[in-house]
Amino acid sequence: MYERIEVSIIIPVYNEEKQISHCLDSIQCQEYKNYEVIIVDDGSIDKTGEICDSYAKKDSRFKVIHEANGGVSVARNKGIDVATGKLLMFVDSDDFVKPDFINNYVKMQSESDADVIIGGIALEEKGKSIVNKVPSLKKRDEDSIWDNICVNQEIYGYIPAKIYKTDIIKKNNIRFNTKMYSQEDLNFNLSVYEQCKKIILTDYIGYVYNFVPGKRKPPIDHFIENQLKLYRIAKDKKISEKSENIIQNKICSLIFTYFYLQNTSKDFQSAVNKINSVSGLKVFLMEHIPTGEQKRIIKWYILKKYTRIYIYLYYRKLIKKIMGRPIAE
Predict the structure, then answer these.
(1) CATH code at 146?
(2) Which of 6, 15, 179, 319 has its CA 20 to 30 A from that of 75?
(3) pLDDT for residue 20
(4) In which residue ranges of the chain is pLDDT below 70?
(5) Per the domain annotation, does 35 fall within a domain?
(6) Residue 37 shares a structural domain with residue 184
(7) Do 48 and 197 belong to one domain?
(8) Domain end position, chosen among 210, 232, 251
(9) Are 63 and 34 in contact (CB under 8 A)?
């Protein structure tokens, strides 16, 4: 027996009776042995709970917590609360990992003492390989990490294929936002990365992600909220001007696109209210308002929540900047 569990693996699960055994088998077959598996059954109504319990009866490293249905973020937070390992990993219940998955991450963490290690993911659809995604390794120094995150948010936003120091999460009381039902991964990771002194990137791929086409797109307010959060943190980390412009333009384009699509909606005011409720958005807009007479006019409209005219004028300026010439009236 080990004196202390080294790695806690958290698996939230809901109605995955067809996939969960493949996932758990891949963990049970790991070369590395000093781990615990915390399975949080989020109120499954099929045989998922029974299957998970059968693993716990045969292998003491597997623990099952049965909860009322509260969503994936609630389930992951429960797993964090009860985790006892020095290191933390997340696996989704419909994915699987290669036999050397835990061993490689633990070895890299032991050698580097990194707060977080970010690895690659292999995407599969119906058992067929689609693409491999790895973090950018062109610039691996600490100063470039946030530039990499700004440019390639997808791989840095994923919860799987990473190993975290548990203390970074628990001591800073970092948890998943239970009000988000999409992009909660990126939101969580940004909070973790902000507290890290050392982040390591690796091109090792040991995690296989089961891609399901047609998954719902994130709500626009969640998307914008995460971009604002990234922009705030990354600016504090002194990112390059190029990366700063990427995030600025992404936020403005998201807002414009949203209001453009809502332009003919009868419920336009509720759309405005939804965007205005995003924390930090109004401050961001005020910081990036065009100068001169437009500033006075647009400021008045923002304060009155007539956001449409601001978006229109700002986007005109953005196009003008990109095209390098005036826009015809």
Answers:
(1) 3.90.550.10
(2) 6
(3) 97
(4) 1-2, 137-143, 214-218, 256-277, 279, 282-283, 285-329
(5) yes
(6) yes
(7) yes
(8) 210
(9) no
Rounded Cα distance, 130 and 285, in Å? 39
pLDDT at 329: 42
Say if residues 298 and 309 touch (Cβ distance below 8 Å): yes
Statement to judge: residues 171 and 277 lie in one domain: no
Which helix (H) or strand (E) segment is 297 a member of?
helix 293-303
The reported pLDDT for the residue numbered 232 is 84
Burial class (CB in 10 A: 0-12, 13-18, 19+), 297: middle
* Domain, as residue range, for 196: 7-210
In tens, the pLDDT along 13-43 reads: 999 999 999 999 999 999 999 999 999 999 9
Please tell me whether residues 173 and 233 are part of one structural domain: no
What are 274-279's contacts with CB under 8 Å, separation 24+? 274/220, 274/221, 275/220, 275/221, 275/224, 275/307, 276/305, 276/307, 277/221, 278/221, 278/224, 278/225, 278/228, 279/225, 279/228
Element (H, E) at 225: helix 220-236
Output the CA–CA distances (angstroms, integers) from residue 152 to 195, 246, 266, in the order listed.
20, 11, 36
| Whole-number pLDDT of residue 234 | 81
Q: What six digits make up the tokens of 116?
A: 């977080």
Q: Are residues 157 and 224 in the same domain?
A: no
